[in-house]
Amino acid sequence: MSFFYHEKKWVASWQGHTIVVTNWWDLLLRTGESLIIDGRPIPQSRPPGMAASNLYGEINISGNVPNVRVHIGHTWGLKIACHIFVGDQLVGGDIDKKFLV
User: Fold this and answer.
1) What is the C-alpha to C-alpha distance for residues 42 and 65, in angstroms, rounded to an integer?
2) Whole-number Å distance between alpha carbons of 75 and 60
3) Contacts with 55 (C-beta within 8 Å, 6 or more apart), sequence order
4) Of 62, 73, 83, 82, which is closest to residue 15 (Cα–Cα)?
5) For the chain, what percent of residues have pLDDT higher than 90?
6) Domain boundaries in the chain?
7) What single DSSP character describes residue 12?
8) Please, which residues have CB within 8 angstroms of residue 44's CB and are 6 or more apart in sequence?
9) Tens of pLDDT, residues 18-66
10) What is the side-by-side strand order in the sheet with 40-42?
11) At 3, is the secondary structure helix, strand, or coil?
């Protein structure tokens, strides 16, 4: 870990399930994201150096498997924001923020 490390975390609940998204960066320009659903880390693959990220996972409910999609990107104030979707429904993150891209 470098001497300057910044982490932002978002938590959403949907029908009794917990979705946690974390984004971090440091002064050495290292970055990372994680998606955890109900305490289980969801492995992701992402090209390095991307300005915006999409993370994907699933929630298993008695055979019904709604998709979880997370978008992390920059807002007009050049701050990091997040939208968390289950299916097509926006369920958490920075619901009121708009992305640059």
Assistant:
1) 15
2) 32
3) 21, 33, 34, 35, 42, 44, 69, 70, 72
4) 62
5) 49
6) 5-93
7) E
8) 33, 34, 35, 55, 56
9) 999 999 888 887 788 999 999 999 998 766 555 568 999 999 887 788 8
10) 5-14, 17-26, 31-37, 40-42
11) coil
Q: Which residues pair with 90 in a beta bridge?
A: 85
Report d(CA 55, CA 69) in Å as an integer: 6
What token pair was written down for 67? 């998709």
Q: Rounded to whole angstroms, how far apart are CA atoms 34 and 98?
A: 21
Both tokens of residue 63?
A: 């055979």
Report residue 24 as tokens: 């971090």
What is the reported pLDDT for 45? Answer: 75
Distance CA 32, CA 4 (A): 14
